[in-house]
């Protein structure tokens, strides 16, 4: 039963159970948890609440499916993914409606996420038949070397709530292309989109009479209780996680006992550098894009706006004006450009960060006041005169707040950009090609956006350095995370 204006077909065809071994089922003990619309707080669905035994049953199904799926022809795996891409394209409006309903983002953003998510499925459908090996004569001339690449094995995929369809396809598509069955643990706050996508996959696999258990989904309200036994099970060979650095560190410790292959896309604290020679119109447009996508709730959101002193005042004025033109509201309403935050605690945290910055001497240029009424909304907020050591600068805000810090020389800007344990992405606006190359060498980051506010692309490697993670997703590198080399001496 739904209290949200989801299209009737979507409401009727969104699974709410566990997908294990090719079948949707109830959780052990019959437990459920509620999934709510963050714009209204209304309950959308009651979803099966997976228990540890359910997680192990899903791993058992993936383990049993592994030999057959590993031997399935690469072309067949490719065709499955291509068919799912086509199904996602045909059902794009359904998926977007779910993304907006459970996550809150405006429909325009939800549609863009679905298109982006589908590109991972298409990209890896093409990569499935391009898993090249190597053959060569050894340097000593005594034998030949043959290097094959084999699927790692069953993989546990743990996804976040902020991009509920894109983050799952970014993991599932390369895993299946490589020949690895998966157990998916979606975020408690946004499991519906994952379930809808998984049903598209299940239906396609079933129609082709391919192994059951290739894709398994276990939502839960007790993530650690469920994932702990799965990670400890020797049948699991790969762990992929997107989320906070704190949780990532815990998972890495758990994965160490089984010496699991891991890929971790963790927290960020992205600097957005604006130099004195920047095109300010482009910089402001890029700043809004980099900061306000999903109301600032993205790991690649610009978190610190570092602006060179000669243009700081003008940039801040223009950014403030741009933020004031944004429209906050429910994602299904026309003209809305900023939806709600995901839950009450997120609003409370953002409000605390803004208040602490103001107490430390920062000036609130726009926003900064928590609204009343239903839903978890917070206004787009610009702060200037922000101290370098303010919490808004040191921590990932994960909300619609843009703190502006000024700097003097290029070296000062680089120093500020690197003054964090994180290194996921950085943005820079400048017309100086030499400076671009210096930044590429000096800024400690896994990705650098130059004169653009978006870097993500299915065909490019996504990931960070330092405390922002291990491994890469997307591009050729993404499928390597699910393959291991075998060297044969002939």
TrEMBL record:
Upper lineage is: Bacteria, Bacillati, Actinomycetota, Actinomycetes, Micrococcales
Name this polypeptide is given: NAD-dependent succinate-semialdehyde dehydrogenase
Q: Which UniProt keywords apply?
A: Oxidoreductase
Entries under PROSITE patterns matching the protein: ALDEHYDE_DEHYDR_GLU (PS00687)
Q: Which InterPro entries match?
A: Ald_DH/histidinol_DH, Ald_DH_C, Ald_DH_CS_GLU, Ald_DH_N, Aldehyde_DH_dom, Aldehyde_DH_Superfamily
Catalytic activity, EC: 1.2.1.16, 1.2.1.20, 1.2.1.79
Give a GO biological-process term.
gamma-aminobutyric acid catabolic process
The lineage's top-level taxon is: Bacteria
Gene Ontology molecular function, alphabetical: glutarate-semialdehyde dehydrogenase (NADP+) activity; succinate-semialdehyde dehydrogenase (NAD+) activity; succinate-semialdehyde dehydrogenase (NADP+) activity
Q: What class of enzyme is it?
A: oxidoreductase
Domain Aldehyde dehydrogenase intervals: 24-484
Please tell me whether the keyword Nucleus is annotated for this protein.
no
Q: Say if the entry is tagged with keyword Oxidoreductase.
A: yes
* Active-site annotation: 265
Q: What family does this chain come from, according to its entry?
A: Belongs to the aldehyde dehydrogenase family.
């Amino acid at each position: 039963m739904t209290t949200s204006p989801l299209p009737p077909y979507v409401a009727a065809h969104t699974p709410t159970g566990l997908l294990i071994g090719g079948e949707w089922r109830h959780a052990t003990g019959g437990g459920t948890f509620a999934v709510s619309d963050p714009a209204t707080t209304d309950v959308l669905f009651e979803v099966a609440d997976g228990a540890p035994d359910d997680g192990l049953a899903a791993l058992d199904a993936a383990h049993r499916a592994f030999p057959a799926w590993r031997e399935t022809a690469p072309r067949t795996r490719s065709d499955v993914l291509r068919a799912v891409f086509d199904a996602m394209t045909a059902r794009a409006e359904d998926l977007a409606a779910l993304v907006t309903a459970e996550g809150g983002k405006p429909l325009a953003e939800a549609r863009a996420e679905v298109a982006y998510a589908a590109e991972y499925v298409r990209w890896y459908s093409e990569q499935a038949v391009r898993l090249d090996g190597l053959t060569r004569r050894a340097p000593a001339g005594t034998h030949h070397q043959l290097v094959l690449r084999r699927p790692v094995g069953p993989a546990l995929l743990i996804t976040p709530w902020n991009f509920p369809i894109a983050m799952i396809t970014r993991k599932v598509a390369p895993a299946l292309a490589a020949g690895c069955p998966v157990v998916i643990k979606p975020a408690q706050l946004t499991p519906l989109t994952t379930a809808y996508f998984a049903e598209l996959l299940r239906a396609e696999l079933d129609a082709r009479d391919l192994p059951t258990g290739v894709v398994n989904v276990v939502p839960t309200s007790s993530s650690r209780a469920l994932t702990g036994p799965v990670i400890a099970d020797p049948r699991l060979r790969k762990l992929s996680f997107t989320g906070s650095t704190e949780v990532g560190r815990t998972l890495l410790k758990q994965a160490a006992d089984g010496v699991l292959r891991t890929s971790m896309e963790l927290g960020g604290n992205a600097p957005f550098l604006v130099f004195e020679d920047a095109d300010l119109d482009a910089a402001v447009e890029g700043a809004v894009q980099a900061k306000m996508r999903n109301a600032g709730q993205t790991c690649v959101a610009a978190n610190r706006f570092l602006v060179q002193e000669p243009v700081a005042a003008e940039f801040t004025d223009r950014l403030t004006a741009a933020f004031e033109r944004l429209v906050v509201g429910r994602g299904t309403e026309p003209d809305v450009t900023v939806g709600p935050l995901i839950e009450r605690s997120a609003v409370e945290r953002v409000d605390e960060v803004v208040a602490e910055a103001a107490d430390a001497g920062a000036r609130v240029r726009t926003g900064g006041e928590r609204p009343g009424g239903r839903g978890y909304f917070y206004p787009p907020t610009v702060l200037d005169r922000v101290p370098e050591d303010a919490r808004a600068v040191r921590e990932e805000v994960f909300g619609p707040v843009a703190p502006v810090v000024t700097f003097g020389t290029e070296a000062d800007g680089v120093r500020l950009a690197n003054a964090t344990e994180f290194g996921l992405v950085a943005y820079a606006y400048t017309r100086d090609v030499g400076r671009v190359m210096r930044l590429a060498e000096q800024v400690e980051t896994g990705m650098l956006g130059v004169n653009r506010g978006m870097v993500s692309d299915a065909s490019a490697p996504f990931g960070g350095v330092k405390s922002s993670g291990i491994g890469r997703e997307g591009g050729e590198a993404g499928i390597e995370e699910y393959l291991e080399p075998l060297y044969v001496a002939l």
